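Case study 2.
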Amino acid sequence: MLQNLLISSFTFIDTLMIGQLGSIQIAAVGLANQIFFVTILFFFGLGSGASVFIAQYWGKRDIPSIHTAMGVALIFAVLGALLVSAVSLLFPHHIMRLFTADKAVIDFGVSYLKIIAVSYVFTAISFIFATSLRSIERATYPLIATAFSLCINVLFNYLLIFGKAGFPAMGVAGAALATAVSRGLEMVLMLLITYRMKTPVAAHIRHYLSFDLPFLKRYFKTALPVLINELAWSFGMVAYKMVYARMGTDVIASANVSEAIQSLFFVIFIGTGNASAVMIGKKIGEQRYDEAQLYGKRFLLLPVLMGIGIGTAMAIFAPQVTRAYNLEPEIIEITKRSLRMLALLIPIRGITIHAIIGVLRSGGDTRHALLLEASGVWGIGVPMAIIGGLILKLPIYYVYLMVGTEEVYKAILSLKRFYSGRWLNDLTEEPPVPQSQVISSSGTEIP
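Prediction:
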Protein backbone atom coordinates (compact mmCIF):
# COMPACT_ATOMS: atom_id res chain seq x y z
CA MET A 1 0.00 0.00 0.00
CA LEU A 2 2.75 2.40 0.96
CA GLN A 3 4.72 1.82 -2.22
CA ASN A 4 1.64 2.37 -4.36
CA LEU A 5 0.87 5.51 -2.37
CA LEU A 6 4.34 6.80 -3.24
CA ILE A 7 3.92 5.83 -6.91
CA SER A 8 0.60 7.70 -7.02
CA SER A 9 2.27 10.62 -5.27
CA PHE A 10 4.58 10.97 -8.29
CA THR A 11 1.58 11.81 -10.45
CA PHE A 12 -0.06 13.94 -7.77
CA ILE A 13 3.05 16.01 -7.04
CA ASP A 14 3.92 16.43 -10.71
CA THR A 15 0.37 17.57 -11.42
CA LEU A 16 0.37 19.85 -8.37
CA MET A 17 3.69 21.52 -9.22
CA ILE A 18 2.98 21.79 -12.95
CA GLY A 19 -0.44 23.14 -11.98
CA GLN A 20 1.28 26.28 -10.72
CA LEU A 21 2.12 27.01 -14.37
CA GLY A 22 -1.48 26.82 -15.58
CA SER A 23 -4.25 24.58 -16.93
CA ILE A 24 -2.72 24.29 -20.43
CA GLN A 25 0.47 22.82 -18.99
CA ILE A 26 -1.52 20.37 -16.86
CA ALA A 27 -3.50 19.26 -19.91
CA ALA A 28 -0.30 18.87 -21.96
CA VAL A 29 1.54 16.74 -19.41
CA GLY A 30 -1.54 14.63 -18.73
CA LEU A 31 -1.96 13.83 -22.42
CA ALA A 32 1.77 13.30 -23.04
CA ASN A 33 1.83 10.83 -20.16
CA GLN A 34 -0.78 8.64 -21.85
CA ILE A 35 2.03 6.94 -23.79
CA PHE A 36 3.76 6.18 -20.48
CA PHE A 37 0.45 5.06 -18.99
CA VAL A 38 0.09 2.43 -21.73
CA THR A 39 3.76 1.45 -21.33
CA ILE A 40 3.58 1.03 -17.55
CA LEU A 41 0.55 -1.19 -17.97
CA PHE A 42 2.50 -3.23 -20.52
CA PHE A 43 5.12 -3.68 -17.78
CA PHE A 44 2.34 -4.44 -15.31
CA GLY A 45 0.93 -7.11 -17.61
CA LEU A 46 4.34 -8.77 -17.98
CA GLY A 47 5.05 -8.41 -14.27
CA SER A 48 1.65 -9.74 -13.25
CA GLY A 49 2.05 -12.70 -15.59
CA ALA A 50 5.45 -13.44 -14.06
CA SER A 51 4.15 -12.94 -10.51
CA VAL A 52 1.49 -15.64 -11.01
CA PHE A 53 4.36 -18.10 -11.55
CA ILE A 54 6.78 -16.53 -9.05
CA ALA A 55 4.29 -16.60 -6.14
CA GLN A 56 3.42 -20.24 -6.83
CA TYR A 57 7.09 -21.22 -7.30
CA TRP A 58 7.87 -19.36 -4.07
CA GLY A 59 5.38 -21.61 -2.29
CA LYS A 60 7.45 -24.56 -3.56
CA ARG A 61 10.78 -22.73 -2.91
CA ASP A 62 11.77 -23.39 -6.54
CA ILE A 63 14.30 -20.53 -6.90
CA PRO A 64 15.67 -21.44 -10.39
CA SER A 65 12.15 -21.35 -11.84
CA ILE A 66 11.63 -17.92 -10.24
CA HIS A 67 14.70 -16.63 -12.10
CA THR A 68 13.43 -18.14 -15.34
CA ALA A 69 10.01 -16.42 -15.03
CA MET A 70 11.73 -13.13 -14.17
CA GLY A 71 14.03 -13.40 -17.17
CA VAL A 72 11.19 -13.71 -19.66
CA ALA A 73 9.44 -10.65 -18.16
CA LEU A 74 12.66 -8.59 -18.11
CA ILE A 75 13.55 -9.28 -21.74
CA PHE A 76 10.14 -8.38 -23.11
CA ALA A 77 9.75 -5.36 -20.80
CA VAL A 78 13.06 -3.86 -21.94
CA LEU A 79 12.31 -4.53 -25.62
CA GLY A 80 8.89 -2.90 -25.24
CA ALA A 81 10.42 0.10 -23.46
CA LEU A 82 12.98 0.61 -26.24
CA LEU A 83 10.24 0.51 -28.88
CA VAL A 84 8.04 3.05 -27.08
CA SER A 85 11.03 5.32 -26.41
CA ALA A 86 11.89 5.31 -30.11
CA VAL A 87 8.30 6.15 -31.13
CA SER A 88 8.10 8.96 -28.55
CA LEU A 89 11.37 10.50 -29.70
CA LEU A 90 10.66 10.21 -33.42
CA PHE A 91 6.94 11.05 -33.56
CA PRO A 92 6.04 13.25 -30.53
CA HIS A 93 3.83 15.61 -32.57
CA HIS A 94 1.87 12.72 -34.03
CA ILE A 95 1.25 11.31 -30.55
CA MET A 96 -0.04 14.61 -29.19
CA ARG A 97 -2.29 15.19 -32.20
CA LEU A 98 -4.09 11.94 -31.40
CA PHE A 99 -5.53 13.70 -28.35
CA THR A 100 -5.95 17.36 -29.14
CA ALA A 101 -5.76 20.02 -31.83
CA ASP A 102 -4.79 22.77 -29.34
CA LYS A 103 -1.37 23.99 -30.57
CA ALA A 104 -0.24 25.25 -27.16
CA VAL A 105 -1.09 21.92 -25.53
CA ILE A 106 0.72 20.04 -28.33
CA ASP A 107 3.88 22.16 -28.03
CA PHE A 108 4.15 21.69 -24.25
CA GLY A 109 3.40 17.98 -24.61
CA VAL A 110 6.12 17.50 -27.22
CA SER A 111 8.75 19.16 -25.01
CA TYR A 112 7.76 16.80 -22.20
CA LEU A 113 7.73 13.64 -24.35
CA LYS A 114 11.18 14.19 -25.87
CA ILE A 115 12.78 14.09 -22.42
CA ILE A 116 10.63 11.60 -20.52
CA ALA A 117 11.07 8.97 -23.28
CA VAL A 118 14.61 8.17 -22.11
CA SER A 119 13.29 6.93 -18.74
CA TYR A 120 11.13 4.05 -20.01
CA VAL A 121 13.93 1.43 -19.89
CA PHE A 122 14.78 2.43 -16.30
CA THR A 123 11.16 1.95 -15.34
CA ALA A 124 10.95 -1.43 -17.10
CA ILE A 125 13.83 -2.91 -15.09
CA SER A 126 12.69 -1.37 -11.78
CA PHE A 127 9.14 -2.55 -12.29
CA ILE A 128 9.96 -6.21 -12.96
CA PHE A 129 12.36 -6.40 -10.01
CA ALA A 130 9.85 -4.69 -7.72
CA THR A 131 7.05 -7.05 -8.77
CA SER A 132 9.30 -10.08 -8.28
CA LEU A 133 10.42 -8.94 -4.82
CA ARG A 134 6.81 -8.44 -3.74
CA SER A 135 5.93 -11.89 -5.05
CA ILE A 136 8.50 -13.50 -2.71
CA GLU A 137 7.30 -11.42 0.27
CA ARG A 138 10.11 -8.82 0.16
CA ALA A 139 7.81 -5.81 -0.28
CA THR A 140 9.93 -3.50 1.90
CA TYR A 141 12.79 -3.29 -0.61
CA PRO A 142 10.76 -1.80 -3.50
CA LEU A 143 9.20 0.59 -0.99
CA ILE A 144 12.64 1.93 -0.04
CA ALA A 145 13.65 2.44 -3.68
CA THR A 146 10.37 4.18 -4.54
CA ALA A 147 10.57 6.47 -1.47
CA PHE A 148 14.09 7.52 -2.50
CA SER A 149 12.97 8.13 -6.07
CA LEU A 150 10.02 10.26 -4.93
CA CYS A 151 12.29 12.49 -2.83
CA ILE A 152 14.62 12.99 -5.80
CA ASN A 153 11.67 13.75 -8.05
CA VAL A 154 10.23 16.40 -5.71
CA LEU A 155 13.62 18.06 -5.23
CA PHE A 156 14.44 18.27 -8.95
CA ASN A 157 10.87 19.29 -9.81
CA TYR A 158 11.30 22.28 -7.51
CA LEU A 159 14.72 23.15 -8.93
CA LEU A 160 13.98 22.62 -12.62
CA ILE A 161 10.35 23.66 -13.03
CA PHE A 162 10.73 26.98 -11.22
CA GLY A 163 14.47 27.65 -11.68
CA LYS A 164 15.61 27.61 -8.05
CA ALA A 165 19.16 27.55 -6.58
CA GLY A 166 20.76 28.66 -9.84
CA PHE A 167 19.04 26.04 -12.03
CA PRO A 168 17.25 27.18 -15.21
CA ALA A 169 13.45 27.56 -15.09
CA MET A 170 12.52 24.82 -17.57
CA GLY A 171 8.80 24.54 -16.79
CA VAL A 172 7.22 21.42 -18.29
CA ALA A 173 10.56 20.20 -19.67
CA GLY A 174 12.03 20.51 -16.16
CA ALA A 175 9.32 18.23 -14.78
CA ALA A 176 10.19 15.64 -17.44
CA LEU A 177 13.91 15.82 -16.67
CA ALA A 178 13.29 15.51 -12.92
CA THR A 179 11.17 12.40 -13.47
CA ALA A 180 13.75 10.83 -15.80
CA VAL A 181 16.57 11.37 -13.30
CA SER A 182 14.52 10.00 -10.39
CA ARG A 183 13.56 6.86 -12.33
CA GLY A 184 17.17 6.20 -13.32
CA LEU A 185 18.34 6.47 -9.72
CA GLU A 186 15.43 4.28 -8.56
CA MET A 187 16.58 1.52 -10.93
CA VAL A 188 20.16 1.73 -9.63
CA LEU A 189 19.03 1.56 -5.99
CA MET A 190 16.61 -1.32 -6.72
CA LEU A 191 19.41 -3.40 -8.23
CA LEU A 192 21.83 -2.53 -5.42
CA ILE A 193 19.36 -3.61 -2.75
CA THR A 194 18.40 -6.79 -4.60
CA TYR A 195 22.01 -7.99 -4.93
CA ARG A 196 23.55 -6.57 -1.76
CA MET A 197 20.79 -8.15 0.37
CA LYS A 198 21.24 -11.43 -1.56
CA THR A 199 17.51 -11.78 -2.13
CA PRO A 200 16.17 -14.96 -3.81
CA VAL A 201 15.44 -13.03 -7.03
CA ALA A 202 19.10 -11.99 -7.43
CA ALA A 203 20.88 -14.07 -10.05
CA HIS A 204 23.54 -13.98 -12.76
CA ILE A 205 22.17 -12.78 -16.08
CA ARG A 206 22.65 -16.25 -17.62
CA HIS A 207 20.16 -17.66 -15.10
CA TYR A 208 17.53 -15.15 -16.25
CA LEU A 209 18.15 -16.36 -19.81
CA SER A 210 17.91 -20.07 -18.96
CA PHE A 211 14.34 -20.58 -20.20
CA ASP A 212 13.58 -23.01 -23.00
CA LEU A 213 10.79 -23.14 -25.57
CA PRO A 214 8.44 -25.40 -23.53
CA PHE A 215 8.65 -23.00 -20.56
CA LEU A 216 8.13 -20.01 -22.84
CA LYS A 217 4.94 -21.62 -24.14
CA ARG A 218 3.70 -22.34 -20.61
CA TYR A 219 4.57 -18.82 -19.51
CA PHE A 220 2.75 -17.06 -22.32
CA LYS A 221 -0.25 -19.38 -22.13
CA THR A 222 -0.90 -17.78 -18.72
CA ALA A 223 0.87 -14.42 -19.07
CA LEU A 224 -0.29 -13.42 -22.56
CA PRO A 225 -3.95 -13.00 -21.50
CA VAL A 226 -2.72 -10.79 -18.62
CA LEU A 227 -0.65 -8.70 -21.02
CA ILE A 228 -3.53 -8.34 -23.50
CA ASN A 229 -5.81 -7.57 -20.55
CA GLU A 230 -3.64 -4.66 -19.41
CA LEU A 231 -3.19 -3.33 -22.93
CA ALA A 232 -6.94 -3.54 -23.64
CA TRP A 233 -7.65 -1.74 -20.37
CA SER A 234 -4.93 0.88 -20.90
CA PHE A 235 -6.05 1.66 -24.45
CA GLY A 236 -9.56 1.98 -23.03
CA MET A 237 -8.28 4.55 -20.54
CA VAL A 238 -6.55 6.37 -23.41
CA ALA A 239 -9.85 6.34 -25.31
CA TYR A 240 -11.51 7.98 -22.30
CA LYS A 241 -8.85 10.70 -22.34
CA MET A 242 -9.45 11.25 -26.05
CA VAL A 243 -13.14 11.78 -25.32
CA TYR A 244 -12.43 14.12 -22.39
CA ALA A 245 -9.90 16.12 -24.45
CA ARG A 246 -12.52 16.63 -27.15
CA MET A 247 -14.90 17.91 -24.49
CA GLY A 248 -12.52 20.86 -24.01
CA THR A 249 -9.15 21.84 -22.53
CA ASP A 250 -10.83 22.76 -19.24
CA VAL A 251 -12.39 19.30 -19.04
CA ILE A 252 -9.14 17.40 -19.68
CA ALA A 253 -7.29 19.61 -17.17
CA SER A 254 -9.98 18.82 -14.58
CA ALA A 255 -9.86 15.10 -15.45
CA ASN A 256 -6.08 14.99 -14.92
CA VAL A 257 -6.40 16.63 -11.51
CA SER A 258 -9.38 14.47 -10.47
CA GLU A 259 -7.62 11.25 -11.37
CA ALA A 260 -4.37 12.28 -9.68
CA ILE A 261 -6.26 13.00 -6.44
CA GLN A 262 -8.42 9.87 -6.74
CA SER A 263 -5.31 7.68 -7.11
CA LEU A 264 -4.11 8.76 -3.65
CA PHE A 265 -7.25 7.24 -2.13
CA PHE A 266 -7.36 4.19 -4.38
CA VAL A 267 -3.80 3.00 -3.62
CA ILE A 268 -5.05 0.95 -0.68
CA PHE A 269 -6.90 -1.38 -3.05
CA ILE A 270 -3.89 -1.61 -5.37
CA GLY A 271 -1.79 -2.71 -2.38
CA THR A 272 -4.28 -5.19 -0.96
CA GLY A 273 -5.07 -6.52 -4.44
CA ASN A 274 -1.40 -7.26 -5.12
CA ALA A 275 -0.98 -8.70 -1.62
CA SER A 276 -3.93 -11.04 -2.15
CA ALA A 277 -2.37 -12.33 -5.40
CA VAL A 278 0.89 -13.16 -3.59
CA MET A 279 -0.81 -14.78 -0.58
CA ILE A 280 -3.27 -16.87 -2.62
CA GLY A 281 -0.61 -17.83 -5.19
CA LYS A 282 1.75 -18.99 -2.45
CA LYS A 283 -0.95 -21.23 -0.95
CA ILE A 284 -1.60 -22.76 -4.36
CA GLY A 285 2.13 -23.42 -4.79
CA GLU A 286 2.16 -25.10 -1.37
CA GLN A 287 -0.80 -27.21 -2.60
CA ARG A 288 -2.95 -25.91 0.27
CA TYR A 289 -5.88 -25.34 -2.05
CA ASP A 290 -8.61 -25.13 0.57
CA GLU A 291 -6.75 -22.24 2.26
CA ALA A 292 -6.37 -20.52 -1.12
CA GLN A 293 -10.15 -20.73 -1.57
CA LEU A 294 -10.71 -19.33 1.94
CA TYR A 295 -8.25 -16.47 1.33
CA GLY A 296 -10.12 -15.65 -1.88
CA LYS A 297 -13.41 -15.25 0.01
CA ARG A 298 -11.80 -12.97 2.57
CA PHE A 299 -10.12 -10.82 -0.05
CA LEU A 300 -13.42 -10.32 -1.84
CA LEU A 301 -15.17 -9.22 1.37
CA LEU A 302 -12.38 -6.83 2.37
CA PRO A 303 -12.88 -4.18 -0.37
CA VAL A 304 -16.59 -3.86 0.43
CA LEU A 305 -15.85 -2.90 4.04
CA MET A 306 -12.85 -0.74 3.15
CA GLY A 307 -14.52 0.90 0.17
CA ILE A 308 -17.31 2.47 2.17
CA GLY A 309 -14.81 4.21 4.45
CA ILE A 310 -12.41 5.19 1.67
CA GLY A 311 -15.19 6.49 -0.58
CA THR A 312 -16.63 8.56 2.25
CA ALA A 313 -13.22 10.05 3.07
CA MET A 314 -12.62 10.89 -0.57
CA ALA A 315 -16.00 12.60 -0.95
CA ILE A 316 -15.35 14.71 2.16
CA PHE A 317 -11.66 15.57 1.94
CA ALA A 318 -10.51 15.25 -1.68
CA PRO A 319 -12.36 18.36 -2.93
CA GLN A 320 -10.38 20.41 -0.42
CA VAL A 321 -7.12 19.36 -2.08
CA THR A 322 -8.16 21.08 -5.31
CA ARG A 323 -7.51 24.44 -3.64
CA ALA A 324 -3.77 23.76 -3.92
CA TYR A 325 -3.96 23.94 -7.71
CA ASN A 326 -3.56 27.16 -9.64
CA LEU A 327 -6.69 26.64 -11.73
CA GLU A 328 -9.63 28.74 -12.82
CA PRO A 329 -12.66 28.67 -10.46
CA GLU A 330 -14.86 26.86 -12.98
CA ILE A 331 -12.28 24.05 -13.37
CA ILE A 332 -12.03 23.74 -9.59
CA GLU A 333 -15.82 23.37 -9.36
CA ILE A 334 -15.91 20.70 -12.10
CA THR A 335 -13.14 18.81 -10.30
CA LYS A 336 -14.94 18.87 -6.95
CA ARG A 337 -18.11 17.44 -8.46
CA SER A 338 -16.11 14.82 -10.38
CA LEU A 339 -14.40 13.64 -7.20
CA ARG A 340 -17.74 13.13 -5.47
CA MET A 341 -19.00 11.01 -8.36
CA LEU A 342 -15.78 8.98 -8.43
CA ALA A 343 -16.09 8.40 -4.66
CA LEU A 344 -19.37 6.55 -5.23
CA LEU A 345 -17.57 4.02 -7.42
CA ILE A 346 -14.70 3.27 -5.01
CA PRO A 347 -16.24 0.19 -3.26
CA ILE A 348 -17.23 -1.44 -6.56
CA ARG A 349 -13.83 -0.77 -8.14
CA GLY A 350 -12.26 -2.31 -5.03
CA ILE A 351 -14.16 -5.54 -5.60
CA THR A 352 -13.16 -5.78 -9.26
CA ILE A 353 -9.45 -5.16 -8.63
CA HIS A 354 -9.38 -7.81 -5.90
CA ALA A 355 -11.36 -10.28 -7.99
CA ILE A 356 -9.43 -9.86 -11.25
CA ILE A 357 -5.87 -9.04 -10.10
CA GLY A 358 -5.91 -10.73 -6.71
CA VAL A 359 -8.01 -13.87 -7.12
CA LEU A 360 -8.50 -14.89 -10.75
CA ARG A 361 -4.92 -14.18 -11.83
CA SER A 362 -3.34 -15.82 -8.78
CA GLY A 363 -5.23 -19.00 -9.69
CA GLY A 364 -4.03 -18.85 -13.31
CA ASP A 365 -7.52 -17.99 -14.60
CA THR A 366 -6.08 -15.22 -16.75
CA ARG A 367 -8.15 -15.82 -19.87
CA HIS A 368 -11.42 -15.31 -18.01
CA ALA A 369 -9.98 -12.17 -16.38
CA LEU A 370 -9.13 -10.87 -19.87
CA LEU A 371 -12.67 -11.54 -21.09
CA LEU A 372 -14.17 -9.63 -18.18
CA GLU A 373 -11.83 -6.64 -18.42
CA ALA A 374 -11.91 -6.22 -22.20
CA SER A 375 -15.68 -6.64 -22.52
CA GLY A 376 -16.26 -4.24 -19.62
CA VAL A 377 -14.05 -1.44 -20.93
CA TRP A 378 -14.78 -1.72 -24.65
CA GLY A 379 -18.32 -3.08 -24.50
CA ILE A 380 -19.64 -0.73 -21.83
CA GLY A 381 -17.16 1.92 -20.62
CA VAL A 382 -15.92 3.46 -23.88
CA PRO A 383 -19.38 3.54 -25.53
CA MET A 384 -20.77 5.19 -22.39
CA ALA A 385 -18.03 7.84 -22.48
CA ILE A 386 -18.72 8.61 -26.16
CA ILE A 387 -22.49 8.74 -25.64
CA GLY A 388 -22.31 10.86 -22.49
CA GLY A 389 -19.42 13.16 -23.44
CA LEU A 390 -19.71 13.65 -27.20
CA ILE A 391 -23.32 12.87 -28.10
CA LEU A 392 -25.34 13.98 -25.06
CA LYS A 393 -22.62 16.53 -24.13
CA LEU A 394 -23.10 15.92 -20.41
CA PRO A 395 -20.74 17.41 -17.80
CA ILE A 396 -17.68 15.27 -17.10
CA TYR A 397 -18.90 14.26 -13.62
CA TYR A 398 -22.02 12.61 -15.07
CA VAL A 399 -19.90 10.92 -17.74
CA TYR A 400 -17.79 9.39 -14.94
CA LEU A 401 -20.93 7.88 -13.46
CA MET A 402 -21.99 6.43 -16.81
CA VAL A 403 -18.54 4.94 -17.40
CA GLY A 404 -18.68 3.42 -13.91
CA THR A 405 -21.39 0.97 -14.98
CA GLU A 406 -18.58 -1.18 -16.42
CA GLU A 407 -17.33 -1.75 -12.84
CA VAL A 408 -20.74 -3.06 -11.78
CA TYR A 409 -20.72 -5.48 -14.72
CA LYS A 410 -17.21 -6.76 -13.91
CA ALA A 411 -17.93 -7.10 -10.19
CA ILE A 412 -21.03 -9.27 -10.74
CA LEU A 413 -19.42 -11.62 -13.28
CA SER A 414 -16.10 -11.95 -11.43
CA LEU A 415 -17.89 -12.95 -8.21
CA LYS A 416 -19.90 -15.50 -10.18
CA ARG A 417 -16.65 -16.92 -11.59
CA PHE A 418 -15.06 -17.18 -8.15
CA TYR A 419 -17.95 -19.09 -6.63
CA SER A 420 -17.97 -21.49 -9.59
CA GLY A 421 -14.54 -22.69 -8.37
CA ARG A 422 -13.10 -22.89 -11.88
CA TRP A 423 -10.56 -20.13 -11.28
CA LEU A 424 -8.04 -22.21 -9.27
CA ASN A 425 -5.19 -23.84 -11.26
CA ASP A 426 -1.81 -25.07 -10.00
CA LEU A 427 0.67 -23.77 -12.59
CA THR A 428 3.71 -25.30 -10.90
CA GLU A 429 2.60 -28.79 -11.97
CA GLU A 430 3.49 -30.08 -15.43
CA PRO A 431 1.00 -29.95 -17.05
CA PRO A 432 -0.87 -27.36 -14.89
CA VAL A 433 -3.56 -28.89 -12.68
CA PRO A 434 -7.06 -27.35 -13.05
CA GLN A 435 -9.38 -26.88 -10.10
CA SER A 436 -11.57 -29.82 -11.09
CA GLN A 437 -8.61 -32.13 -10.41
CA VAL A 438 -7.27 -30.29 -7.37
CA ILE A 439 -7.39 -32.12 -4.06
CA SER A 440 -7.33 -30.03 -0.89
CA SER A 441 -4.77 -30.53 1.84
CA SER A 442 -7.40 -32.25 3.97
CA GLY A 443 -7.84 -34.86 1.23
CA THR A 444 -11.24 -33.78 -0.06
CA GLU A 445 -12.07 -32.14 -3.33
CA ILE A 446 -12.97 -28.48 -3.19
CA PRO A 447 -16.69 -28.05 -3.94
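The chain has 17 helices and two strands.
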